[in-house]
Amino acid sequence: MVKESFMRRRYLWVAIIVGIVLVIDQFTKYIVEKHIRLHEIITVIPGFFNLTHVRNPGAAFSLFSAAPESFRTIFFTTVTIIAVVVIIVLIRKTHEQLMLFAFALIMGGALGNAIDRIRYGEVVDFIQWYFRSFYWPSFNIADSAITMAVVLLVINLLFVKKPPDSIKSA
Fold it and tell me: Are 72 and 64 in contact (CB under 8 A)?
């Protein structure tokens, strides 16, 4: 009964989740921009976790950061539009709550970073994990939402049993 109710309101739930991701993402970036100077580092847990204010003109791991800004703008805008359209199609087709949650997280994260790209031509990152001399590339809440969604999709793929009638024969 709960699942049926959830599925009837799936678009509302997706919109709420996307909205929550966007609000938290944009609010945390606003706080960082207002209170942490560009490239400033604030140690939170020595030897493990910092807050910093950096800008990433590229994608994950600074992919395409050296490409001309005009290319990056067109490329990332196109990729975001395609991703949102594909996710909308997937949301319409799925009947699994976990999948809907994952798709909503991806959409919220993609839109959160797209807002930065439109506003600044780059993404505001501020979370920095490290151990000794190994630093994971800085990231933000939008990136975290996308990463959590990928983990949920993998969990769904590997561990959630599908009813026999949901598996189509080739």
Answer: yes
Active site residue 25: no
Give domain status of residue 48, yes or no.
yes
pTM: 0.86
Residue 135's domain comprises 2-159
> Which is the catalytic residue, given 25, 116, 143, 165?
143
What distance in Å separates the CA atoms of residue 15 and residue 141, rounded to the nearest whole number? Answer: 17
- Whether 143 is a known active-site residue: answer yes
pLDDT at site 33:
97
Q: Is residue 168 domain-resident? A: no
Q: How confident is the model over 47-62, as pLDDT tens digits?
A: 999 999 999 988 776 7
Give the pairing type, strands 123-131 and 134-135.
antiparallel
* Integer angstrom CA distances of residue 77 from 82, 83, 105, 109, 119: 9, 10, 18, 14, 12
SS3 at position 11: helix
**pLDDT at residue 136 in the model:** 93
Would you say residue 159 has pLDDT above 70?
yes
21 assigned to some structural domain = yes
155 half-sphere exposure, CB direction, 13 A CA radius? 12
pLDDT at 169: 47
Q: Given 25, 116, 125, 165, which residue is catalytic?
A: 125
Count of domains observed in the chain: 1
